[in-house]
Amino acid sequence: MPADDDEAELIAKAQTGDRNAMQALLLPYEKPLFGFLKQRLGNPHDAADVTQDAFVKVLRGLTKYQHRGQFRAWLYQIARNESIEFMRRRNRFSTATADDEGGDRIAETPDPRPSADEQLLAGEERARMRSCVEELPDSEREVVRLRLDQDITFREIASITEAPLNTVLGRMRNATRRLRDCMETHGFAPAA
Amino acid sequence: MTADEENQIALYWSGELEPGEAAAAEALLAGNSEAARFLAELKRQAELARSAPDAEAPPRPLAAAAADTVANEIAASKVIRFPRFQVIAAVAAAIAVLAIAAIFLRDQLGPDCDPGLASELGRREAIAREVDALEAAVADFQLTAGFAGRRT
To answer: How far apart are CA A50 and CA A75, in angstroms?
Structure first.
């Protein structure tokens, strides 16, 4: 991620319509945000579309944005809201399609099972943990992914998810217990 | 361990505590094995759950595409962007000029420029002449018949 001063300078230039500044501002977030949305949406094509939509929305909103060192949280908040809207549209479409086809078809969801490659490369314990993360309730899984995968602070997560800090911390506490129990159920001892 | 204490440990692990708060969390960790286990569990899960999301690049350059889209929008808006009140004022001025020009031309050309108006004026003049003739005839009749000064 760019240093805050650099980011503030890029934001100021981007606000004037400087195309290069716009790209330089967003580029450090391209892969992590795409990864975050791919996990949420379950496939790379939808994730790419939503990432680009979020980027466009952020750039259009820059003229009204006042930088206070919260750009990443603002970007992720917009991306999260875009993904929620996208899933709403997709579920509506999937429901309609399933109805049309007699309900045989179900909405596309990410496969929570770790792939064979993952098992071989990352080890059974890691694969199991990822499987346990997939089994968490949505709100807890979101906090775990933002904190662990994206390295986003709890305070930023509170801003992104528009929830109080204590709520976010509560979700993390609950997720930690569920993950520990899930791992124990599959024969992995808790941390000493 | 209370929920508040667990929150403090989570924030400590996340590096989000001020120095004074961090010292308090460290003291808690030193004197409470449950807190130490909670921190160890957070670290272990973080290590295991981290899935390196940025290992896979997106299928196309997303930041560049978004920057192109918005930069083009801004460039286009600069070409045609006028404040709305200026557009309204310009249209109103144009309408006023056209109206004044129309009135001026009509005054200059007179009824000849409008066949309908000329016909109407001609008809009124003819009626007025007939009325004058009738009044003259009535006056003559009154004089002849000795009714001068009386009007019915």
So the answer is: 12
Determine which of B45, B47, B60 to mutate to test the interface with A (most A C-beta atoms within 10 Å): B45
On whether any CB of chain A is under 8 Å from the CB of B133, the answer is no
Q: What SS3 state is found at B114?
A: coil
- When CB atoms are compared, the residue of B50, B53, B70 closest to A59 is B70
Structure-token pair, residue B141:
């009749």
CB < 8 Å from B in window 133-152 of A:
133, 144, 147-150
Q: Tell me the pTM.
A: 0.67
Query: For residues B50 and B44, what is the distance between their CA atoms, to the nearest angstrom?
Result: 10
Q: Would an 8 Å CB–CB cutoff place B64 in contact with chain A?
A: yes
CA distance A144 to A134: 10
Under 8 Å between Cβ of A33 and A75: yes
Distant-in-sequence contacts of A157-161, Cβ < 8 A, 24+ apart: A159/A70, A159/A73, A159/A74, A159/A77, A160/A73, A160/A76, A160/A77, A160/A80, A161/A77, A161/A80
- Per-residue pLDDT 10s for chain A (192 aa) are 666 678 889 999 998 889 999 999 999 999 999 999 998 898 899 999 999 999 999 999 988 888 777 899 999 999 999 999 999 988 777 665 555 544 443 344 555 555 555 555 457 888 888 889 999 999 999 999 999 888 899 999 999 999 999 999 999 999 999 999 999 998 887 776
**Inter-chain residue contact A30 with B59, CB threshold 8 Å:** no
**Which of B79, B69, B81, B78 minimizes the C-alpha distance to A22?**
B69
pLDDT tens digit string along A80-104?
Answer: 999 999 999 887 776 655 555 444 4
Instruction: Name the H helices within A16-70.
Output: 19-41, 44-61
